[in-house]
Prior knowledge:
Layout: H1 18-33, E1 83-84, H2 85-95, H3 97-116, E2 123-129, E3 140-149, H4 154-220, H5 226-261, E4 270-271, H6 283-293, H7 295-315, E5 322-331, E6 336-345, H8 354-419, H9 425-457
Parallel strand pairs: 1-4
Antiparallel strand pairs: 2-3, 3-5, 5-6
Helix pairs in contact: 1-8, 2-4, 3-4, 4-5, 4-7, 4-9, 6-8, 7-8, 8-9
Amino acid sequence: MKRRLLHLLIAVTATTTYQTTVAQDASMGQMMSMDRSMTQSLGGVDDQVLPESDLPPLPGMPSGFADFDTAYDYTDNATVETHTLETVLALAAGNNPTIQQARLHVSAETSKALQAGLYPNPVLMYVGEKIGSDGSAGEFQGFEVSQRFVTAGKLQLSRLKYRQRAHVSEHLAIAQTYRVTNAVEVQFIEALAASMRLELKREIEKTAEDGAVTTREQYNQGQANLTAVRRANVMLQKQRLERMATENEYRDALRRLSAIVGVPLSIGPTDGELRPSDALESFDTVLSRLIAESPEVLAARAKLRVDQTTVRREQVEWIPDITIQGGPGYNFSNGDDVYNAGVQIELPIYDRNQGTIRQACQDLRRQQFEIQRMELHLKERLASAYRTYATALQHATEYDRVVIPELRAAYRQLLVSYKENRIAWPDVLEGQRDYFQARMEQIDQFKLVRQQETMINGFLLDGGLMAAEGPVPPGHIDAVPKPR
């Protein structure tokens, strides 16, 4: 299940690492809070300056969530389990029920192959003829054994057919494994991106707390009005609510991941790299690989061989089997030991399996078109996924190269200007908002890149909790008393 070895990651020209970005942002936060008493008028005081005790208090944490999840921070809790992609993939391999279903399909077809090739059982009969004739026990009293001899290699063809269907099931089991691993990785990336957004939301919340305190101090020095204090309180509470919403998103992502894995996962931190490292190949190269190696296409081609064998099997079905019967007895009329013998063969005058042969041929023809349809559908799905991947990669790369460095530099300059009393505090907040928003957008772009990369390298298979497919499409021949 180490499907990560199949995956190529995407090359991104990164001008800074995430850790460097966080360190730089921390330094900017320090610059922003170094001088909360700095003189900068926000337009004058529009009402009487109130004593500190009469100011609107800083809002407390949002209440009313006692019955829901509480806020969490794992930085000081070494006992909380950290989830990695490798660990959740290993758990899914052994616990996702659809993988077990797919394996049982293989076992079922192997069992059918065994049953289809078994020879018919002999039939033992008691025979009594003309019992009571002339007061005797009958002319014949004895036993007969009959055996049907199968002709034209029917049993061998039937067994071959179901062995080939077992191969179809093997390809479908591989496809189901990819569906599960793709779903696990996509959902893990969702959780990882949510955790990174949560880190940013906590930074923004801390900045809002500093801003609320700074505004109160400015008010006490006559440099801000009461409206500004109230707006700072509102901004702080909004940031807290946004942080809590992001926490809920993170929990939701982990719970969805837990459902796909098949075992409960604790609400703990995730550890992984959201930034890709290598780029996918060209569209045509990727498409060629998908068509050549996709388990769906391989299963369809294997199913074509099954249909070819089915046609051969149905073409010999009309050839009659031979039934031979016979056995010893006693003729009570004559007092002799006698024997019975007989040979039975069906004359295929009317029924030569014409309709079933025709249906089998149509199934074969339909499967040929099914392979063509599947390859075209694969191309259509790849086109959409590749477009999303390319667009997200372009955005993430340029955000890394230009947008975020420029916004970071602008934010720093605003902090310096504020320290030098050349701009007002709302201008700093606007620059900060643009900077953090760009970082949020970059996380979302990296998430899209990794998710689409996962799907493309995983043959575009999704549906980790969909029931595993069987080897027989609807409408095919599969309803006879004995498998054939």
